[in-house]
Amino acid sequence: MSLLFGTAEFNENQHLVIGGCDTTELAETYGTPLFIYDVAHIREKARGFKKTLDELGIKNKVIYASKAFACLAMYKLLEEENLGCDVVSGGELYTAVKGGMSPENIEFHGNNKLKEELEFALDSKVGTIIVDNFYELELLKELTAAKGVQQAVMLRITPGVNAETHDYILTGQVDSKFGFDVNSGQAEQAMQRALEIDGLLVKGIHCHIGSQIFSSDGFLVAVEKMLTILHEWKEAFGYTAEILNMGGGFGIQYTEADEPLKPEQFVKAIVESVKGQCARLDYPLPELWLEPGRSLAAEAGTTLYKVGAQKVIPDVRHYVAVDGGMGDNIRPALYEAEYTGMLANRVSRETTSKVAVVGKYCESGDVLIKEIDLPEVVAGDLFAMTSTGAYGYSMASNYNRNPRPAVVFVENGEAKLVIRRETYEDLISLDCED
Ligand code: LLP
């Protein structure tokens, strides 16, 4: 069964329409594969987070995790919606600044920020740097001293929480490359050290327990751990945090089988737990920051492909190949991620056969959807794969020297090209001839 999100609907011609734009016309104008973002849907999600936090009466900041999908237009949209953003590289920082993000609303993350990247962040006057390790603490000491500046920072803590998700996107467990570990005492040591460094203003602590999480249980354990250590540090060295940043990770619906909590439910559970722990420990209620990435961008994104070749192996499998694949969406191959979709040019309720939707890349693992019920498909049909707005384009590659797709934003019947399709010229533009 297909899923319809946000403004997606079918018109009288049985065409899929998103943001008031007929996707068959979008395919004609911009070509395929094409990423289509339903802007109203992103706005609605962003406002949902904000509204719930505000209504629960806690000071807050919603910070979009750029890695899910970033481009100039996305940053402009975030700025319009009063969201912050987190960046994890000089490149994301550069794009955010160029896209008009206010530097004070930018957070800089990363487990191995380069010296040049940290300098760039300091020079750009980013709001917060989330310090990940001792090496970075010392680098920041050096750089803030050399520049004679003071930088607001938070410490990334690894609370030792195992959220239930794919191993590759787990981040809060003890054996992780990210953050300061609590159990071995590194987190406490890091806080002590950070407080000694004149150039650093330690605003609070951060954790991110993983991604595509469906229940609030892991967050609640993490909140308890985070407030317990804050309480200990208040006793131990009189430090009180202004901000508690609980990261992102809120799951979304890729297929009908997925049943994540709604963002509002995650937020409510987290806020109640923060308030409860603060009351229990008699700790002043900190500001709560959250970093949703996928839950803001994923369901707003649809990839439109054109069907080409088909191969039917009797009693084995029916392959339907589209004009994209693992180069524009590595998630099925990398995480065994499951998706669904529908024909965009002629919706039909009747399903006639089970097919596998595969890409055009020279790899057997280039399977976008292992099994889906579709009406009879012919070359030239448009296949719309849903929930591709997060970690699709942002993880895209030029494997097999395929150009990366174009991206359009659609809203109120208008389409805006926000990333143009790569050309063959683009593909050789970095090659050096001797
Ligand atoms: N904050 C931090 C510190 C993070 O590391 C991440 C994601 C987020 C926030 C946003 O998480 P989200 O709300 O999007 O789940 N490529 C993988 C996902 C990697 C996530 C990495 N960190 C995927 O395609 O599933």
Labels describing this entry:
single chain, 434 residues, alpha/beta, TIM Barrel, 2 domains, nine-stranded mixed sheet, eight-stranded parallel beta barrel, 12 helices, 24% strand, globular, binds ligand LLP
Short recap of the structure:
The chain has 434 residues and is α/β, with parallel strands linked by helices. The chain has helices spanning 23-30, 39-55, 72-80, 90-98, 115-124, 134-147, 186-196, 217-237, 263-281, 294-297, 331-335, 424-428; strands spanning 9-10, 16-18, 21-22, 34-38, 60-65, 84-87, 106-108, 128-131, 151-158, 180-181, 200-206, 243-245, 287-290, 301-313, 317-322, 341-343, 353-358, 367-374, 382-386, 406-411, 414-419.
Explained architecture:
There is one protein chain. By secondary structure, the chain is α/β, with parallel strands linked by helices. It folds into two domains: 9-31 and 300-427, Lyase, Ornithine Decarboxylase, Chain A, domain 1; 39-297, TIM Barrel (Alpha-Beta Barrel), CATH 3.20.20. The chain is 30% helix and 24% strand. It is built from twelve helices and 21 strands. It has helices at residues 23-30, 39-55, 72-80, 90-98, 115-124, 134-147, 186-196, 217-237, 263-281, 294-297, 331-335, 424-428; strands at residues 9-10, 16-18, 21-22, 34-38, 60-65, 84-87, 106-108, 128-131, 151-158, 180-181, 200-206, 243-245, 287-290, 301-313, 317-322, 341-343, 353-358, 367-374, 382-386, 406-411, 414-419. Strands 4, 14, 15, 16, 17, 18, 19, 20 and 21 form a nine-stranded mixed beta sheet that branches. Strands 5-6-7-8-9-11-12-13 form an eight-stranded parallel barrel, surrounded by five helices. It has a three-stranded antiparallel beta sheet with strand order 1-2-3. A hairpin with a 2-residue loop joins β20 (406-411) and β21 (414-419). The N and C termini lie far apart (54 Å). The site of ligand LLP has 23 residues, from α10 and α11.
